[in-house]
Amino acid sequence: MPASTTTASPQARTVGDIAASTPGATAVFRRFRIDFCCNGDLDVAAAAARRGVDPVELEQALDELAAPASEMPAAMDSDALIDHIRTCYHQAHRQQLPELIALSRKVEAVHREHPQVPAGLAEALRRIAADLEDHMAREEASLFPAMLDADGEELGLSIAALRAEHDGQGQLVELLETMTGRFAPPAGACRSWQALYIGAARFVDDLMEHIHLENNVLFPRFASPRDASA
Fold first, then answer.
1. 19 shares a domain with 84
2. For a pLDDT cut of 70, what percent of the chain falls above it?
3. 81-96: string of b/e by CB count within 10 Å (b at 16+)?
4. Same domain for 59 and 111?
5. Same domain as 121, residue 46
6. Helix, strand, or coil here: 36?
7. How many CB atoms lie within 10 A of CB 6?
8. DSSP output for 52-71
9. How does pLDDT run across 83-104, given as a tens digit for each residue?
10. Is residue 102 part of a domain?
11. Across the strands, what pairs with 43?
């Protein structure tokens, strides 16, 4: 095994780089509630401090993971990575959100007197769906084709705007977590309520992976150094 795959300490790398290159790292980061997508430029120590977790414990969990693998999305060429994002995330979000909105409306109506009902969740999901659809449609219509034709040309202005939208999406994810108590249904919750929180948690996981792949893997290939670090 090449020495370069084993000598670098996790604390010497950003969490975005670790998430992109190390199988299982995103699951570790989600377990510790580390934001590896919108704040992927932080190193392990800074990311741990931001969440108030033990950096040594986080580093130990990362040390237990396998070495970087060639099948990770970061190893894909840009054409394959764009196709991966479209098929694994854009399509998934378009399937997930309408069902989550319908489930949320049902739970809010049936359990409106329950003290833990996620009042307003359906509207929050509707806002996310509208914002995300507009965002994804512009990527598919303009940015992705430009990337496929760019041959390494910088596309900084478009990328900077989309990064800013990712930050807004990250804030909406935090709102969902707050409204649902981090997707923990109350004791005795009906199956619809349980399904809603399971589905919402899966959507958030997928969205974080989606944003991470764009912010930390795809966008830097076409952004100037200043845009990439913005």
1. no
2. 86
3. bbeebeeebbebbeeb
4. no
5. no
6. coil
7. 9
8. T--HHHHHHHHHTSPPP-TT
9. 999 999 999 999 999 999 999 9
10. yes
11. 14
- Within a domain: 101: yes
Tokens encoding 179: 């409204």
154 and 177 co-located in one domain: yes
Residue-number span of the structural domain to which 211 is assigned: 76-228
pLDDT over 70 at 135, yes or no: yes
Beta carbons within 8 Å of 167's beta carbon, 6+ residues apart: 38
Number of domains in the chain: 2
Global confidence as pTM: 0.73
Domain shared by 136 and 182, yes or no: yes
Tokens of 139: 């990527």
Which phi and psi (to 5°) does residue 43 adopt?
Answer: -80, 175
Alpha helix segments (H runs only) across the chain: 15-21, 25-31, 44-51, 55-63, 78-85, 91-110, 121-138, 144-150, 156-180, 191-213, 225-228
Residue pair 51/32 in contact by the 8 Å Cβ criterion: yes
83, 180: one domain: yes
